Amino acid sequence: MKTDLQYTVFDEENEYSLRELCSMCRVHAQFIQDLIDEGILSPLGAGPREWRFAAIEIKRIQISIRLQDDLRINLPGTALALDLLEEIEELRRSKRQLERLQVPEKY
Amino acid sequence: MEFKDYYTTLGIERDATQDEVKRAYRKLARKFHPDINKEADAESRFKEVGEAYEVLQDAEKRAAYDKFGQNWQAGQDFDPPPDWDNGFEFSGGGYTENDSSQFSDFFESLFGAQGAGGGAGPFTGQQRQYSGKGQDLHAKISINLEDSYRGTKQSLTLQRPALDESGHVITRPHTLEVNIPKGVTEGQRIRLTGQGAEGMGNGPSGDLFLEIVFKHHAHFTPDKRDILLTLPISPWEAALGATIPVPTLGGKVELTIPAGSQTGKKLRLKGRGLSTAKQVGNQYVTLAIMVPKAETETETELFRNMEKQMSFNPRSNLGV
To answer: Quick one: CATH architecture of A15-101?
Structure first.
């Protein structure tokens, strides 16, 4: 069993350049450009050289790749699916919370 | 080894046309795709559906599989007869891009472990590449909210594809001790450098991406970094105000409820959520007033007194 593995947590604190993002997700810069044009990713910064991507967006890239590979969904469809998935996640959360607000049978 | 009924898996009849096979597969692939379906068994269902399609989409493999006829039941103990594939030739393609290393022993005993697409496949999905770097792997890791609150170590066993001496793709169990840092949130990814599939030749290993999934908690609901809790209180605590104990992920704390609180009022416990060194998560407590039952005579009398002495109409804003 190995310990002390080298790990990175992708949270709000980390940011990556276009080059780092491409090598991490193993995609071409054009694929990232396409995702930006579709509104799936929104980097900070003026142009490709200055772009900074929040680490949390890696999740969106990975899901995009899988949806396209596994289900043959095109780019606009992928964008729609991602938006709807996030909305479902929100709704599930508030549903769970509402269910807990209901008066229990016994107290 | 268990016999697998691929027709049942896809929910189709044995005489389904190739078009029906394709439609059934596409519908189920969408339904069980692990990025879309959050059920715990989604990933395994997705793989089963992919395996069934791998066989049934190809006329030759389907014909060979059909030789077993209807005598076999799913789950029945099964060993293929030694000459079962006489007259069939599987070397000539007909494989989908699904990753055969994900398929069952049943599939392998019939159609072999190698030969399919070569790596890019369900839920390991990566663009194909020839750089020699090993494939990246993706897995989910289920943890308790308390594990994120404090940070923890968890051991995790994965099936990792590798090449055997003759160059065939096989899977080997691989156990890792994973550090779960304090303050991870649902859906977040952790990358473990070099813990993916082995590289080709001298190429480096791929990376392992772990997706954090929280186990259901009896009381708390996570909302990104925040923790939500519905807190039952008594009518007198709500009316008069009180300092009461509240559970948090870090243990019990005292919370002051202002006088005149109503059901639905939200109070914040700062820093009691899933915090990291730089990011702060809070716990939000939503009050829910519980009314005791009037069971004894004294209790009934108390409510009667309130009725007589308090001019309270909870329906005044409804105009009645």
So the answer is: Orthogonal Bundle (1.10)
